Amino acid sequence: MTSFPRPRAAEQLEARLRAHYAAQRTDGRPRGSAIGDEQRLRQLAALMAQERQGAAATPRPMGFVAFVASQVRFVPRWTWIVQAALMALALLLATGAQSAQAVAMGTSLIGGAAALAGLPSLLASKSFNTAELECACYFDCAGATAARLIVIGCSDALVLGCAALCIPLLGALSLLEVLLHLCPPFFAGAAGCLLIARRARPANTLPWALCWTAIVLACAYGFAAVAPVAYEGTSIAVWGCAALAAALWLAREAYLLLDCAARGLDALKATASPVW
Amino acid sequence: MELTLDRLSKQFGEKIAVDRVSATLTPGVYGLLGANGAGKTTLMRMLCDVLRPTSGQIALNGRSVRALGAEYRSHLGYLPQDFGYYPEFTALDFMGYMAALKGIPASVSRRRSLELLDAVGLRDMAKRRIKTFSGGMKQRLGIAQAMLNQPGILVLDEPTAGLDPKERVRFRNLIASFAQDKIVVLSTHIVSDVESIADEVIVMRAGSFIMRGHPETIVSALEGKVWECVADAREAAALESRFIVANAHYTPDGRNALRVIADRCPTPSATPLRPTLEDVYLHVFRDEL
């Protein structure tokens, strides 16, 4: 059965129904009482059955929100396990850490690790060579990548939000301190991972991403030694600028990743054997 | 429904993979034949909006597919030659994933997935992981996902690769029942598949269409040029060095029976044979063999 004739059949059905009832009103006959209308009613019933069949065979495509929601169940289970472990770590830091410095270091670790945990899911199309298949679908490769970014992004926001709520609530650090230890490593870590995802060979992506995350965390610890959060407003401004710069970089890398996916196999194959 | 290719070209650096191809495709089965490197896969990728043409355009019912975007892709079903999959997915998971990508609501996708898995003989494997599948089973899964959205345009790149003869017959029947009012484009090296189900055969070489028509029309071009020659070993070797030999086997008396493709009668005792599409393929691509 063809996918196309549904709108015209609906218009035909409406027109014939209108004509049928208009004819009844003109003749002054009560609805459904005339023998001569039987044939017309049978025709209408057949047309309605055809319309129902057509509607069943060609459902409207789902919207983007429904598509994003549908992607949740396709994220590997271990990603959710890692996210849950990070939330558990946040609780542990809030309740069991010996010093504010240990809490700060652990908070940075949560930010960096959250950025890394979702990377394999984002790269799945490239890693498993399904991009070609996905590019030819209604929601193409760009749609699939956008949906994964949203799902993983929301999940990361939940982890970071959990850390931002638990740690200050249980008195380990203030909310501002938690955010400034959490956000720069997350944004910088995620931005670098997305850059690596675009430029590296699929087999090399995870090792490079691990290296990058380690560098980000080392810088975060070093930064904390040079400009500790609690040391006057200047330190807060510096941390804030670092967080803002990292966030802008992340936004740019997310855009470039989507752009690469939208350009189809030309762009995806071009990055199959790049610099690294 | 009408799919129009207008001077379509694709260039990779210095190499021209598809060279100003023009055609109008209406509902029917089109078999795309060509040697490796002829441009078939590149053409199919452009048809499916996976690759952007360097020049030219593709139009569906007069509207550019670039402008149609997702609407065009909603009418597509595609099986690539190099079919990727997520190994941890079960067959049903994969069908559900592809159904979501094709915009099929969950209320419909499970039923349709099971129907298609049944049609390709994978119903019993629905809950098994794809990484445990044989090559033929993966190929059948690929064919099933291509049909999920009841596409008006079905593009299959080497769909029978890895299928045993029984599966290939099942595939041909599936395509024949499916292709009533659809455009089906399939490329294959297995000439017999194209011969039996294609309404039109397109022969491609060096990025261009060099021959196009009904299989019988194309085959008739080789009428009077296919011969059977029975010869001893030395004569057989000489014939093989001078002509295209499509097939060779031994006769009961130990001599060589050769199926030879030649413009003129190769030996005085040669008998003419009815040509097949495979003969046409060997004749056209003789320089590349």
From TrEMBL, chain A:
Asked if Transmembrane helix is a keyword of the record, the answer is: yes
Membrane-spanning regions, if any? Answer: 78-97, 103-123, 149-172, 178-197, 209-230, 236-258
UniProt KW keywords? Membrane, Transmembrane, Transmembrane helix
Source superkingdom: Bacteria
For this entry, the protein name equals Uncharacterized protein
From TrEMBL, chain B:
Q: Name one GO molecular function term.
A: ATP binding
Tell me which UniProt keywords the record has, alphabetically. ATP-binding, Nucleotide-binding, Transport
Which InterPro entries does the entry mention? AAA+_ATPase, ABC_transporter-like_ATP-bd, ABC_transporter-like_CS, P-loop_NTPase
- CDD domains, alphabetically? ABC_drug_resistance_like
Domain ABC transporter as annotated: residue spans = 3-231
- Identify its protein family: Belongs to the ABC transporter superfamily.
Q: What is this protein called?
A: ABC-2 type transport system ATP-binding protein
Q: Which organism is it from?
A: Parvibacter caecicola
